[in-house]
Amino acid sequence: MTCIINGELKMPPRMANSKGGTENMARLFMKYVPPDSYKNFQIHISKVSQEIDPTKKQILWEMDNHCDQDTPVGRFSFDEYVFISDWQRREFIREHNLPPEKTSVIETIIDFVPDETIQKPTDKINFVYASVPDRGLDVLYEVFNLLTQKYDNLHLTVFSSYKLYDWPEVDEYYTELFEKIKSHKNITYRGFEPNYDEVIRAKYNSHFFVYPCTWLENSGISLIESLACGCVCVHTDFHAHPETSEGRSISYSIPSTMENHIYACYGITDQLIQRYLSEVIKFPLPFPRVLYKHTPAHLIEKWTQLFKRLDV
């Protein structure tokens, strides 16, 4: 619902305070991409909310899902479709019969350089969750509760609220889950944290990022951040997360029932804790914290190349 045109980011008032991934990526675009490079373009972000300027070439920067009913794909004509993962790109091509030659992938980025000097705690094992609640928080709660019955030195920090999108009313649907989380002696619930550095600090301080997400995520910024902060990451495998992590995480298929999902995720996480306790897993982990594709330099490079190709 956001548009970039004439060097301006035009965002609907109800989205202005959102700290969601789409809005943050739009802000990072404005921060890093040279304005002169896109002066001949109108970039629609996921939806068409502004009148189309016929004097400019049209780009749809799509961050939503291929199955969304209100997608502008097929209702408007675009010169280029930009996606945030190849998985998302393939799904849109399949679902909407898009011409592949008019599609591009420009991955989401993070806006910090990992501090590899920060050490993980040795007196306890920390977990962190940082996303809205419908990304598998209910499963994680049950998994973590089972783990605390076996291990007495675990702690989970939860950053989760639809206040992230400036939609506090949606949290009412998760009141029961939030109350269970708040009452658990091994969990600290921090809701929505407006200070981004606080979330990153908690991830640096954590050993594990367990993300049993069943939502169709097209990239996974929280996963990218957690990898950058040196966490062992566990997640489901049916969306873009395996592509995002590129072998630096542990993924698993989602079982058909929630109960089976809980025990599948529990089994994997329990094994990883055992490997950590037996020093098979050692921190810092032996892989790159951030891949080039998730850096501001890559964002600038890919967008400027695209503009040059289209601006003929």
Summarize the structure in words.
The protein has 312 residues and is α/β, with parallel strands linked by helices. The chain has 9 helices and 12 strands. The protein has helices at 21-32, 86-96, 137-148, 175-183, 196-204, 221-228, 241-245, 258-277, 296-310; strands at 2-5, 8-10, 41-45, 57-61, 80-83, 103-105, 125-130, 154-159, 187-189, 208-211, 232-236, 250-252. Strand 1 (2-5) and strand 2 form a beta hairpin. The model has no long low-confidence stretch (mean pLDDT 95).
The domain tally reads 2
Distance between the termini: 27 Å
> How many whole angstroms does the radius of gyration measure?
20 Å
Count of DSSP strands:
12
Shape annotation:
globular
Order of helices and strands: EEHEEEHEEHEHEHEHEHEHH
Q: What is the mean predicted local confidence, pLDDT?
A: 95
Class of the largest domain in CATH? Alpha Beta
Unreliable stretches: none
Number of helices: 9
The biggest beta sheet, please?
6 strands, mixed
The secondary structure category is alpha/beta
Q: How large a portion of the residues is in β-strands, by DSSP E?
A: 15-25%
